[in-house]
Amino acid sequence: MSWPITLFDYFMIVLRVCLAVAVTLHVLRTKQNTAACAGWIGVSWLMPVCGALLYLMFGINRVRRLARRLVSDHHWRDRGLAYHARYRLKGDFEPLARMVGKLTERPLLGGNAITCLHDGDNIYPRMLEDIASARVSILLCSYIFRADRIGDQFVEALALAHARGVAVHVLVDGIGGGYFFSGIARALHARGIPCHRFMHSLLPWKMPFINLRNHRKMLIIDGRIGFMGGLNIGEENLRRLRTKHPVADTHFRLEGPVVHQLSEAFARDWSFTCGEQLDGEVYFPELERQGDIPMRVVTSGPDNDLEKIEFSMLQAIALSRRSVRLMTPYFLPNERLVSELCLAALRGVEIDIILPKRSNHRLIDYARDASLAPFLTAGCRVWMSRPPFNHAKLMVVDEAWSFVGSSNIDARSLRLNFEINLEIYSESVAQELNAFMERHRTRRLTHHALDSMSIVRKVRNALVRLFSPYL
Q1: Which ranges carry the PLD phosphodiesterase domain (predicted)?
Q2: How do beta strands 247-248 and 394-397 pair?
């Protein structure tokens, strides 16, 4: 028995075709990645209605369009930068410095000083001390900011600064700071401290932004002292507390003209989140030389800064001649990074990749283990460090160029998250970071270790690896 075709059936057929055609045309016009193009077009024709809704929610980069509207309204770019701070690099890394300058549209700045700090036990007291000494402004951005014992110390320090007239602004991520309930945002609001949650909304039509996160960690005091790196704010980073899952990390204290670029990155995020501009000498004072190290901030995110951190890393690896050392908590590189690292190893560059034996995300470990064989085949040395889990993100090339900050080496950090890194042209800093990484090279991974895994573990790891862009 056949049912008669009704007017509603004709309407649904036309609707499905129109939706599929609309998605296909939009994908062809806006997507550069051929795999993404094929995937979205296939979904739109197989499931026209659901596919169109999914594409509307997750396939369109509204963040970039919003950033383009906001960027023209900013008046603080390059404010507070003395012209003498702009640095012209000579030598082997001159092509890299020139490329990153064009990529980021930020100058390389000389006259900076940097202090490498390890673990919350050493870093938090220094941050709290500088907050206590603030006179005019405090800018704080953190992916995770917990309302625990260490979080309460920061709230109290910020409240005291706010009470003595310091302009305090706090930005926490909409996911990392607690999606349905943010204890730290409530505590800050209770003390009258301006606090916003980055791209946070419970409204259904703003759900496309739920997968986009501000992973940056920044603290700027009076526009003159900056902190940045991988450290979140939470008591798990205090090793003396002997928490169940302790986290080691590395952070950097900066002084000099480069702090202006750190302030600029925060001001962009603040304006992006709430529309308020931070301007003037309070946030962008004239900065004097504090050392002799050339540095530059590199930001990335799914906006106008798309893939800039990844491109900087790729160019540095391509220019390497002697050594590349990487330390990262999560290692799920895309094909471009895999190829560049393996090619460098094949031409004789010493490649050391230092990873935690076990991170705080088990699924990421499974996917990572399924991706390591090509590196061993090419001659890279992969090391598994002992506990506690180390959250530091460090890269050193030829013992002269360092790249540090918040970005992991995975699809989330390199394409979806808003991240901030710092490039440092200093042999002394590179040697210090190399020595730190050397101490964490505890067990070298071999082909035998990978081959001896059970077939069940290999299949599990390979299956999880398929979802690596979403982990």
Answers
A1: 210-237, 386-413
A2: unpaired
* CA distance linking residue 212 with residue 342, whole number of Å: 30
In angstroms, the CA 212 to CA 398 distance is: 34
Helix (H, G, I), strand (E, B) or coil at 466: coil
- Residue pair 318/340 in contact by the 8 Å Cβ criterion: yes
Share of the chain residues as helix, strand and coil, in percent rounded to the nearest 5: 45, 20, 35
Domain 67-89+111-293 -> CATH class: alpha beta
- Which neighbouring-strand residues pair with 141? 171, 218
Residue pLDDT, tens place only, 236-251: 999 888 788 899 999 9
Q: The pTM is what?
A: 0.86
Report residue 171 as tokens. 């930005």
Which residues on neighbouring strands pair with residue 396, listed in sequence order?
A: 325, 402
Instruction: Please name which of 429, 434, 412 lies closest in space to residue 310, comparing C-alpha atoms.
Output: 412
Are 244 and 46 in contact by the 8 Å Cβ rule? The answer is no
Torsion of CA 192, 197, 198, 201, to 10 degrees: -140
Q: Answer whether 396's CB lies under 8 Å from 433's CB.
A: yes
Name residue, tokens 């003209």.
Answer: 257
Sequence spans of domains, the chain? 7-60, 67-89+111-293, 308-470
d(CA 161, CA 163): 5
Residue 137 pairs in a beta bridge with 167
**Which DSSP string do the residues of 195-258 spell out, in sequence order?**
EEEET----GGGGGGGG--B---EEEETTTEEEEES--BSGGG-GGG--SS-EE-EEEEEESTH
Mind listing the pLDDT tens digit for each residue in 368-380? 999 999 999 999 9
Phi, psi of 142 (to 5 degrees): -145, 140
- Distance of alpha carbon 412 from alpha carbon 211, whole angstroms: 9
Distances (CA, A) of 346 to 79, 322, 375: 45, 12, 10
CATH fold of 308-470 reads Endonuclease; Chain A (3.30.870)
Which region holds residue 96: left if phi is over 0, alpha if psi is between -120 and 50, else beta? alpha
